[in-house]
Structures are given as C-alpha cells and as structure tokens.
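Exercise 7. Predict the structure of diguanylate cyclase from Vreelandella arcis.
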Amino acid sequence: MTGIIISDNTQHLAIPALPEFLRSDLTQCANLPSLPSAAVRVLEVAGHPDATLNDYAHAIEQDPALTLRLISLANSAFYARHHTETHSCLEATSRLGLDATLAAVMSFSLWRGCRSNDQLQRIWGRSFVAALAARYLAEQLCPAQASFVFTAALLQDIGMLALLAVYPADAHELYNSAPVNHLQISQGEHMRFGCDHPSVGGWLAARWGVPVSLAQVISDSHGELTSQDETDLFCVRLSGMIADAWLSTNPSQSLSVLMRRLNPIVTTPSISLRDLLNSVQRQLPPLADLFDLTAPSAYDNEALIIQAQQLLFQQTLSLNARLDAQQHEIDDLQQRQTELEERSRRDILTGLSNRAWLEEQLHERFEYCKTHGYTMSVVFIDLDHFKKLNDRFGHQTGDRVLERFGQVLSSLVREGDLAGRYGGEEFLIILPNESATGAQRFAKRIAKRLSETPMETVDGQALYVSVSIGIACLSDGGFGNGRELIDAADQSMYFIKRTGRGGISMYGH
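Solution. The predicted structure, encoded as tokens:
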C-alpha cells in the first residue's frame, strides 16, 4: 500500500457532492464511526514512505487485544494455508499484507460493541461474504490487487453504519423493511437521505484519511456491472451481488438472476461460480468465529448451482418467448404503421401519390436541386373532355378511366420519378434531374400509349382519351419554390387547352 497521510481526502473523490444537510449532520454527529487509536497509529506510520513492517507491527502492538486478533486472523484457514503458525504481530502483518492489515484493524475496532445488534450482524455478515468472494475473484482476475479488493469489499457498507448513527430511526426502518438486494436499498436511501450508503462510505473512508483509490472503490461499489469496469472495481461490485444472493431468502432464484446479468459480460473462463461459492463457504465459518459473528447459513452449493441453472434456463425460455411475442407485435405495428403511412400518401382511386405527398416531395426535391445545382422537371397533365365523358357515360365509367390512366402512368415512370393525382382529372409527375427535352420525350410516350390503349370499353366500343400536357423545368426560369414550378407547368398545360387540346407545351420554349 502506498503511504497514507492522516488528512481529509473527501475533496479528491470523484463522486457527486453529498447533500449539504447530510454532510453537515455527518460532520456534527458525535456517534459517527471513527478510527480507533491503533488504526490512527497505523495510518501515521503509513504516512512515512520509508516505513517498515516492523514499524506497522510496533504501532499495532500498543493494543494487545488487537494484536491477538490480528495473529488469530493470520493463523486462520483463510490466510494460513501451508504456512507455519505465526506468533508475533510482525509475522501476522507480513502474512496479511498492509491492505488486509489495515482492513482488519479498522473492522475489528468498528465491530466492537455491535455483536448483540441483529441489524449490524446482517451488515457485517454481508461484508464478510462479499470480502471472501471478492478475494477469490481478484485471485483469478487481478492477483496483485487481491488484498486491496478484499479490503474494499469488506468496507463497502461502512456508509450504513454512518447513516445508522446519524439517522437511527429512518435508517433502522429502511434496513429492516428493505430487501437484501443493496441496489434496491440504495434507491430507498436516495429517497430518504438524498444519497446512498456507498457514497457516504466513500466519504467517511476518505475523511479517515485512507487512500483515495480505496475510498473511491467503496463509493462506486454498488454500481451496475459493465464490461468497461476496472478489474478491481468489477470484483468488488460482483462480490456484493454474490453476497446479496447468498443471504437472500431464495438464493437459487437470486443466483439465476445474477447469472443472467453476467452472461453479456466477458470476464474470463477461469471464474467458476461453483468454486467461488465453495471457497466462501469453506472460509466463512473461521472468519465469522474470529469476529464473533453469527455465520450465515451454509448451502449445498452443488444443488444450489443446479437449481439456479435450471431456473435460468426456464427464465431464458420464458424470456425468449416473451421477446418473440413482443417482436411479432412490434413487427405487426411497424407493418401497420407502414401501411397507414403508405395509405396516407396514396390516392385511393388511382393508386398514385396524392396531392399532399406530391407537394411535400416537390418542396424537398426542389430545395435539394437548388442547393446542389441539379435540375428537375414537372409534367402537368389534364384529361381532355373529362366532364363530358362523365356526363355521357356516368361517374363510374369516369372513375374506371382515371384508374386505368393511373396504371398507364405507373407503367411509364422510372425509379426515382413520382407520379400522382393532383386533383380531379389532373395529374402531376416529378422528374428529378431531367431537362425539359427529356420531360418532353416522356410526355410523348404518354400520348402515344394513350393513342394505342383504350381506357375503357363502353357498349362494346373502345374508349380512348387524349391529354393536354404542360412541362416546366427548373433550369428554364427563376423559380423561387416548387409551387411556382407547378404554376408554370399548369400555365403551359392551359395553353394547350386553349389551342385545341391533345398536345404538349414546354414553359419558356
């Protein structure tokens, strides 16, 4: 561990500022958890960059009870492994490492006087489960940081101790009624205190003078798991979730939820949830005994994992079925939306675009051509003598003529062109990037097709129609908008109407 200087490091934390009322109440609280004199001495020693293990041991030895507990911890199953038994504070500190030593010094002292309190038993029970899980994860993912991760996981809930000290009634009510899941507890804390216990814990640790890196991880310990997390933070966050599952009333259900959350996160194949749970279960009793803590219930981890996997499989099937059903609903809605949009743009009788869609598209294409220096033409068509046709043969015949004429236009326009019914017997075709001459050739194809194709059969006689066509091209006039372009084509069309019908006129030619 790097040197620690006794100072208030809260200003260095990258967390949102605590609410002013909460910071004030925390600062003035006489019962706020504080470091014991032994921990202060250890931190003072750590403030010297040339401090030795002997200096740490000498500082701890001033507290005989703490020294004995530290030696007991070093000789516990968690730390002893194949080492010989330790008999001195120096040997214990050397075996534990400075991070774990600091954690032990603080947790031993913070835990004093709390053993008869069921609520604090639950808080520390979760912390111990999380610390053991965190150390296992760190040994697989970031071995060099195992002690740091163990310390951060062990102290991740010290903010709850602070909130219990400052607001005992509110905190007791929240922690007694809330579920074990600490993400949900954090939501309740935000509603009551404007802040959650991880942020308070990070602030408290920084105020004690612990390294900012440790206080920061404590503050961030309850966030969502993501693949972008730093490895040490990932281990601490996951350890808390494992502890929540371990202590829940339905651990197999909680583990299955955790498995599902882990699925999209890539870690490493060396992590085995089964081995992790076995490791925690094996090491928890001696650690709990060391702290006079009532150890949480033990489980048949093999059966627990199998149940969790079965639940996950069932949940996955159910989820996939719901997702499939939802996707079908979304596809149907999108299809109906597409159909409605298409219908709103279409003239029901002819199947061509309606006037509103024609004008909207003309405006967009006009602006695009003006901006990029392209040209475009519009062709305005009016069916000749259509009123007489209606009067003579009836509106049903007139409607069939309009419908058939719409089919003719659809067969002649190119991809990218837009043909529509402008109103009554009037039609408009938009020809992007087409000159007046090109539009004239298109108009001649329409006239030729009409001369060859009857639009209806009445009493066994083929009914042919002619059209008057006006053309306007963007390049042939100083048009300010699409409306002026249509008016120019309309004027050209009426010139044909006035001079005999059945012809083509180009604006400006």
